[in-house]
């Protein structure tokens, strides 16, 4: 934000309540751990919650998966997905969002990149076959 921009904005309006929501939110001071101010943070959070709750197939809603299945799903990382679905990938860093260093690379078959245990879905297969 440009120094003094809030003061200039307030000169354009009779009262701070007259400022358009998006303009005001963009001028808000960012919170320490965010790229937005408190108003946009609240709006974004609320929208994510509503989107998740409206998705009847979202994985952690009640009666979609049992607790054992949820535990397995929560173990999956993007590193595991890359290991399982890329051609000839045998090494991967645990956090794929960081620039890798050779010391960070782990074998795809190591415990540090856990695999999902699909045996927890076996009763679902039995139900469909009956």
UniProtKB/TrEMBL annotation:
Keywords: Glycoprotein, Oxidoreductase, Peroxidase, Secreted
One biological process term in Gene Ontology: response to oxidative stress
InterPro entries referenced in this protein's UniProt entry, alphabetically: Haem_peroxidase_animal, Haem_peroxidase_sf, Haem_peroxidase_sf_animal
The keyword Cell cycle is annotated on this UniProt entry: no
Major subcellular site: secreted
MF GO annotations: heme binding; peroxidase activity
Cellular component terms per the entry's GO annotation: extracellular region
Subcellular locations according to the entry: Secreted
Pfam families to which the protein is assigned, alphabetical: An_peroxidase
PANTHER family, sorted: CHORION PEROXIDASE, OXIDASE/PEROXIDASE
Protein name in the entry: Uncharacterized protein
Organism of provenance: Acyrthosiphon pisum (Pea aphid)
